[in-house]
Structure formats: structure tokens, C-alpha cells
Design brief:
The protein is an alpha/beta fold. The chain has a single domain, classed as 3-Layer(aba) Sandwich (Rossmann fold). It is 39% helix and 14% strand. Helix 1 runs parallel beside helix 2, helix 3 runs parallel beside helix 5 and helix 5 runs parallel beside helix 6. The two termini are 26 Å apart.
Length: 259
């Protein structure tokens, strides 16, 4: 049975992904900081649900704690690392920008270092649609330039994309990045839009729509999202053969097993 190390298993997406992999017979070790950005009890309940499966274990720890992260990964010796944990929330980054740099930049660096040392078969990591920022082209495409982030959250996520490409190029670390668009589903985060909309409706309050009501929003089912991640686990990017064309947007370098 293959062993998968997942950061953020007490989070919304991490919980659903871990459950899917456990149902398929994977051995999963979770790593989560249990931060209080939203209800910690909800996070504990998610972990309690996963713990009903004997193939699941978890460590509570911050990504910035590289000693604990390294020790945990050393002991588990995963085949695959899936990095979903992050300091989330676009608006909270205005209040506490340091938390985003610590978790999303320093923490992700620690994960990539561990993946490099263990030469894992595939490193999969979460980015965000927020990195498109000031891009005025609609609809977005993976091949679009994304150099105008408008929030600290988005900037830290773009930094992780750049770092991951460098790691793939320098150390032949097969890496796949995902740019998630707003995810919905059961066991979701209470700070997300659809929860706020329902709460406003039930309490007879106006629904707040940002940008003066002039906006469109994509929503992605968490079930579809984790199924996509599951399918890509088995399809690690590889160095192209000499003369083989590189799909547009897959890599900035023919030497990097990265997409």
C-alpha cells in the first residue's frame, strides 16, 4: 500500500482528500497546525472522522516548525507528499500579513525541502485562483501571465509556485501545482461565501456582494476537486525526451519535471 503524507488534513479540502485516499486503501499521515482562523472544533471533528480508519494517523504541528515536520516525514517515509495546508483567507491577510509569509512561504519551503531529501515520487501542492490578481483577460487560462497579485495571500501563493519550479529544475523533483477556485461542499469552512449567504438569508439580512455587486464567481465541488488530485497522483510530470515538444504552460524549462 502506498503511503501519502498530507498537510492540512483537518482542513476542508484535506479532510475530503484524506477520506478518499483512505477509502482506496492508501496509508495516510496527516499534519495540521489546528490554527484558530476558524472553529477549531470543526477541525477536530474532521480528524476524528478520519481516525475511524486504521490507516490514518496525524501529527499536530505548524509548517514553520521544520524540526517537527522533518521528524514526522522521516518516520513516515511517504511515497507521495500532498501539501494543502496554508494560512487561508484573502481579507485576513490585510490584518495579519506575517502569518501568511510564515505559513505559506516558510512552511512551503520546509515541505519542499523534506520532499527533496526523501526523493518522493510526486509532490502535489495547492495554489489559488487569486494569483491572477490584476489580470483583465477573461476567462483565465493556465498559460496566462500572473504577475500582478493584489493581496498578500495571493503573493505568497505565487511565491510558492516560483519556488516549486526552481526545486523541480534544480533537483528533479516531480511537482504538480493546483490553482483552486472557490470550493464548496460538506464539512466546509464557515467563512466561505455560501455559508455567509445562507446565514444572511436565514437571519433576514442583506447578502453582501463585493465589488459593488459587479462580479462573477466560480465554485468547485470539493468531490470533483479531490477526485482530480487523486487522478494526478499517478501521473507525475517527467523530463521531456530530447526533441519532444513541451505543452504550453507546463514548464518554463525543459529540465523541470513540473506542471
Amino acid at each position: 500500500m502506498r503511503k501519502v503524507f498530507i498537510t492540512g488534513t483537518a482542513g476542508f479540502i484535506g479532510y475530503h482528500l484524506a477520506k478518499l485516499l483512505l477509502d482506496e486503501g492508501f496509508i495516510v499521515h496527516g499534519y495540521d497546525g489546528m490554527t484558530d482562523y476558524y472553529d477549531v472544533n470543526l477541525k477536530h471533528r474532521r480528524h476524528a472522522m478520519l481516525a475511524q480508519t486504521p490507516n490514518f494517523n496525524a501529527t499536530e504541528g505548524m509548517l514553520e516548525n521544520h524540526a517537527l515536520l522533518d521528524e514526522t516525514i522521516d518516520q513516515f517515509a511517504p511515497d507521495i507528499i500532498i501539501h494543502l495546508a496554508a494560512q487561508a483567507g484573502v481579507r485576513y491577510s490585510l490584518e495579519n500579513p506575517r502569518a501568511y509569509v510564515d505559513s505559506n512561504v516558510v512552511g512551503t519551503f520546509n515541505v519542499m525541502e523534506a520532499a527533496r531529501r526523501h526523493a518522493v515520487q510526486h509532490l502535489l501542492m495547492a495554489s489559488t485562483s487569486s494569483i491572477y490578481g490584476a489580470n483583465e483577460k477573461m476567462p483565465f487560462a493556465e498559460t496566462d501571465k500572473a504577475d500582478g497579485q493584489l493581496t498578500i495571500y495571493a503573493a505568497t501563493k505565487k511565491a510558492t509556485e516560483s519556488m516549486s519550479h526552481a526545486y523541480a529544475h534544480l533537483w528533479n523533483l516531480p511537482t504538480t501545482m493546483f490553482r483552486f477556485f472557490t470550493v464548496y461542499g460538506t464539512w466546509g469552512r464557515p467563512d466561505l461565501a455560501y455559508f455567509k449567504f445562507v446565514d444572511a438569508i436565514l437571519n433576514d439580512r442583506p447578502i453582501d456582494i463585493y465589488n459593488h455587486g459587479d462580479m462573477w464567481r466560480d465554485f468547485t465541488s470539493v468531490d470533483d476537486l479531490v477526485r482530480g488530485i487523486r487522478l494526478l497522483i499517478d501521473v507525475a510530470p517527467v523530463r521531456p525526451a530530447v526533441g519532444e515538444p513541451i505543452p504550453e504552460g507546463d514548464s518554463l524549462s525543459p529540465n523541470a519535471p513540473w506542471r
